Hints:
heterodimer, A: mainly alpha, two-stranded antiparallel ribbon, 14 helices, B: 3-stranded parallel beta sheet, 11 strands, 46% helix, 16% strand, globular
Amino acid sequence: xxxxxxxxxxYVWLLALFLVPFIIVFKISLSDIALSIPPYTPTxxxxxxxxxxxxxxxNFAFLASDDLYWRAYASSLRIAAISTFLxxxxxxxxxxxxxxxxxxxxxxxxxxxxxxxxxxxxxxxxAWMGILSQEGFLNQFLLWTGIISxxxxxxxxxxxxxxxxxxxxxxxxILPIFSALDRLDGSLIEAAEDLGCSRLQAFxxxxxxxxxxxxxxxxxxxxxxALGEFVIPSLLGGSGTLMIGKVLWEEFFNNRDWPxxxxxxxxxxxxxxxxxxxxxxxxxxxxxxxx
Amino acid sequence: xNKLMTSSALLALCTTTALAEEVRVYNWSDYIDEAxxxxxxxxxxxxxxxxxxxxxxxxxxxxxxxxxxxxxxxxSGTFLQRQIAAGAFQKLDASKLPxxxxxxxxxxxxxxxxxxxxxxxxxxxxxxxxxGANVNKxxxxxxxxxxxxxxxxxxxxxxxxxxSECGVHFLDAPSEMIPAALKYIGEDPDSHDPDVIxxxxxxxxxxxxxxxxxxxxxxxxxxxxxxxxxxxxxxGDILQARDRAAEADNGVEIVYNAPSEGALMWFDQMAxxxxxxxxxxxxxxxNFIMDAQNMADASNYVYYANGxxxxxxxLAEDVIGDPAIYPDEATLANLYTTTPYPAKVQRTVTRxxxxxxxxx
Lengths: 291, 360
């Protein structure tokens, strides 16, 4: 009985906070736009029979027929994949340095990685606008040093979006890699070097494979939220930045078309489920290996 | 005795909490003299919570979702009409609005096309959508005879290409930019025919590469600072930019012109949502706004014309005397209004807008 209760808790949690909202969104995606409160039809007030009869997949057909949505999904996937890779390039050396740092420094270093989270995410993104704009700190500095003679156009481009995503999500990359590297047995590297590996070879053949699980976990933790990112592309990106989070916002607030916005969200979720399942599998395998 | 004092103190405390009413107002950004907000609080004792937006679309999303929590909102005419049809507003109680007698019939007859009998709304301000230009910079790029008062400035790709050097902003408002593009090619700006609306696409697409940003509030500061040299925006906002530049004395000279081909005339209407938490206080706020002196103060501050006839003697000369704000008969004849799009046409319009903005 007690065991049953224990299992029930997470399921009730999932049901209330995931399944029920999803069903509501899915239902709206099958509805029609209407000029009323709420702005779609049918609602349950129409009675059960007509309610179900009025639902159809028209909005999904509309999405399929318009290439804007496919391009937005593809563009989001590309931006998420590239920024995940760049985040790995930035995050791995930091995690590596942290793991090799003297034991007594590590809590401080860990703190430094987590500390930015104490400031609102929105304020940190706005700070980047101040850094990257034409009159911003970065351009002022580069002009002052004489490296460039005309200010660089970074804000309102995809470059700014990459910078924003890397900055925001790099802690999610560092932490799992750090925890993998932290557990790494130093004698393995010594053994590799004794057996004739150079330091670089030892890193490539021993350290990287042994931190593989951290890399995979970190990559998923960056890729999944980056795919649906809205705040960063809308504040740092230009009108040429096509990301599905932004399209979703526009469908909802500019077009006031809840049914189509919901259909976009349902498809986004379906696309996200694949990496989430892969992530879950990876975590499970890792747990089994350790056990 | 002591006990009595405590209980009376408690009672006093309770009554003040009960009296501390609040009214939540959701208005356009840069659209009021903030001294008026303090005046309202001190005159009526009602706490005023004042939030701002810069897009009719965002306001409509909140209205149609219901439960916005606002007591007074300010949609423009066409949006008001749609939202009345959706049942988003409550009828005004004229008995609580003695200052209704101050309103200007000329404006009321026009707003009645969106809100018959003005039953749901009062006019706050009205204006036109037109061209703000940094005269010196534009003339530097296009020559002394640059068409700063014509849609040619904005829709001729050759002129826009040159202007892109100093920066051009357009409103992020499809319901105003598309009619302007239609007007430019001689079509009916208020057309609801998807085939006619589609003709706006090549016009806007041709100049899209030269528009730095589609945004509905950033251009005030950008114009005033000299970051951009042309904005297709709202009359009073551009005149505010003119004033900010003059105050900063930074050598930027801004001029507003309603396009000579014809300009969109719009009306921003104050209305009370059907689920307003405090409609009583909302009426008090509307009545306060319709006070002749208050309305004159607001117009003198934001450079928009209002729908309040009694306020006119108190208006500053550079407001009532400026034909860009209070148009003369000739300009007035050249202004057009639009009506709301039906839902499926709305989808065509917004899709076209997304396509233009994202350049796809």
